[in-house]
Task: inverse folding
């Protein structure tokens, strides 16, 4: 029997269905022993013996890093928001053509005297600001590179876009696909607030990539 390969796929969200479609396209049928709500699936084929873990896209990154999974589909933004020790254990094999979005910094549409990072820096000199985000490491590194100081980055555990409206923070950094959610919550992108362009990506544990059967699988999935 072929050695098992463990694949982490998103359990929900905008990249779940396109991820599953990659398997369908390559005739890798995923079945479950406990029905459609089961978070563990299997693929039995002539060439592969796969165990599928349906997890949060963030958890897929951790699974690759700690050898819980060999291969995963997740967002590049989530990988680059992880610490460098984790990033060094993971290889992006291919950028995928879905989950395309950008991580950006936004301010209130009513804060008309704040248009750029330079404005943020000047305002923060006299009045320290708070920026709320789910991308702490990405944001802190970006602000440091741009020499923006006196901005406290705080973690968001909920609907990030509403934070400015309820005076929880002055700035928001979040992933944006079309900008419609930001606009609906009275947010406006800073002129130079683009932190990262992202998409879903096929990723592999560098440790697992030494196995031929894993390399064969990611080659197939990337076609």
Result:
């Amino acid at each position: 029997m072929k050695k098992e390969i463990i694949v982490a796929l998103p359990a929900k969200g905008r990249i779940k269905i396109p991820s599953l479609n990659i398997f369908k396209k390559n005739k890798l049928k995923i079945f479950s022993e406990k029905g459609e709500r089961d978070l563990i699936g299997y693929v039995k084929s002539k060439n592969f013996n796969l165990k599928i873990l349906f997890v949060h896209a963030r958890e897929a990154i951790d699974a690759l890093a700690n050898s819980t999974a060999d291969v995963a589909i997740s967002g590049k933004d989530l990988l680059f928001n992880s610490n460098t020790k984790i990033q060094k254990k993971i290889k992006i094999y291919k950028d995928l053509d879905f989950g395309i979005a950008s991580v950006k910094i936004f301010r209130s549409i009513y804060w008309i005297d704040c248009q750029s990072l330079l404005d943020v820096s000047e305002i923060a000199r006299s009045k320290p600001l708070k920026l709320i985000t789910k991308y702490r490491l990405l944001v802190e590194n970006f602000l440091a590179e741009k020499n923006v100081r006196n901005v406290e980055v705080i973690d968001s555990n909920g609907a990030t876009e509403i934070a400015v409206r309820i005076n929880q923070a002055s700035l928001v950094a979040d992933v944006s696909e079309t900008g419609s959610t930001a606009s609906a919550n009275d947010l406006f992108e800073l002129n130079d607030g683009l932190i990262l362009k992202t998409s879903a990506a096929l990723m592999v544990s560098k440790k697992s990539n030494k196995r031929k059967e894993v390399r064969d699988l990611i080659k197939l999935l990337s076609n």
